[in-house]
Amino acid sequence: MILKTKLWLLLVVSAALSMVLFGCSSVWIGKIANKGYALLELNPLAHSIVDSIDEQPELGKDTLKSILDGAHEEHPSIRFLWMDSNGQAIYDTTGLNPNFTFRDLALLMQNMPEGYLKNDEVNILTPVSREGETYFMLLSLPASAMKQGEMYFLIRSHKSLLTLVAPLILSFSIPFLLGLWIFSRINKRIRKLNNAVNQLNLQSNSPVAELADSSKDELGQLARHYNSMAQRIHSQFGEIQQFENKRKLLLSNLSHDLRTPLTTMLGCAELIRTGNYKDQQELHTRAKIILQRCRYMDKLLDQMLEVSRQDEEDITIHLQNHNLSEIIRKIAVEYIMILDGEQVELDVEMPDEDVQLLIDASLIERALRNLLDNAVRYGKDGHYLGIELTADDQAVNIIVKDKGKGIPPAHQKHIFERFYRVDGGRKGEGLGIGLSIVKDISLAHRGTLEMNSRPFVETRFQIRLPVSTPV
Ligand code: ADP
């Protein structure tokens, strides 16, 4: 059942229940809380007394006295008075025995039932005919002896109920109608939200449609939360898709990247095997090419391994106190050999005193090698490679610099993303994960990785490691 139908049902049932409840409770409470005589009870009471007097064979004063006193005993607040047709009291339970003129009687009766409402006396005059004579019985009681709150006694016929019920229905229906109006508005907004959630298409490239609901209530807040959530999911979905596309592209290029050096290596190896080289110099060159290609393929395979490892787990580090200056010296020597014969100046700057730090040496070495490999690979044109170690009270900085073509500003903010490559992943020798690994290693040491690049002036990567215990 939809909410609207439920609400209508609720409205009808609750309106009917309210009316019944009102009727029953007003009668019931009237009976319990309203002590006294009801106006409609007085006539039957008068008639029952008149009937019991009428049943007597003789209408003597004693008979009247015993019946009327008996009735007065039963109803002490009521005065019972029996009079003849001239208005002369024959018996009066108050003992006053007045003589009523026609005017007195008319005055007694004239204010009925307003007298009752105005808190005067209530008088009921009942005529009795007996043996050709006419008598009257006056039943008189103070209005305070009547029920104080009794609406339904005023209803003469059921038709008059309508006059009572119509305003009642009207007043009852106002809160219901207001409730209905508010509910249908809320229902409309919920339906809009429902439709928006239903139509949310994360895969489409078009932007997510915003839900317009500026109100400050809970539904407005929900709509705003939905908008920001949808935006977030949509952009995250886009990022995941982009990431997946890059990954697919790189893996598909990988077979090509592996085959190219393999062809070169096969050519060189064949030349060496057949002895078709000109001199020792060519033999040396061919062997060097094979070595370079082997290193390159080795590196590619390492990176592939790294990709799958990064998918599986976060970096775990094992910290120990190490001489960072020593580590950098060792790596610098390696690169002197690698750069042998290349026209690249290698500049190493370190503090005079050795720098000791709590680090995972193998991870820091890996990070440094990644940065140096990049500087050699992409910054060779600058003919300069710098390694710098600085230390202050708070941190130790490992800096790798080159003066090559650098990284264009548009690419700089993406450069630490996995699989991101400036050349779009086709040319060059890598999977685009080297810098993301360096960043992960820096973060694992609670440090940072920063980059500044001015083409052919300086491209600088700086790992900053805090001196205090990093984890
Ligand atoms: P890979 O070297 O495997 O492509 P990296 O994450 O190490 O992956 O580097 C990402 C990209 O950043 C490289 O493709 C390269 O375009 C650019 N890059 C990194 N270091 C340098 C540098 N020193 N000079 C110029 N470009 C660089």
From TrEMBL:
Q: Which reaction does it catalyse?
A: ATP + protein L-histidine = ADP + protein N-phospho-L-histidine
A single Gene Ontology molecular function, please?
phosphorelay sensor kinase activity
Query: What positions does the domain Histidine kinase occupy?
Result: 253-469
Give the enzyme class. transferase
Q: Please name the InterPro entries in this protein's record.
A: HAMP_dom, HATPase_C_sf, HATPase_dom, His_kinase_dom, HisK_dim/P_dom, HisK_dim/P_sf, HssS/ArlS-like, Sig_transdc_His_kin-like_C
Q: Which chain regions cross the lipid bilayer?
A: 7-29, 161-183
Does the record's keyword annotation contain Kinase? yes
Q: Pfam family example for this protein? A: HAMP
Q: How does it sit in the membrane?
A: Multi-pass membrane protein
CDD domains registered for this protein in UniProt: HAMP (cd06225), HATPase (cd00075), HisKA (cd00082)
Taking every annotated instance into account, which residue ranges of this chain make up the domain HAMP?
184-238
Q: Write the protein's name.
A: histidine kinase
Q: Which organism is it from?
A: Paenibacillus cellulosilyticus
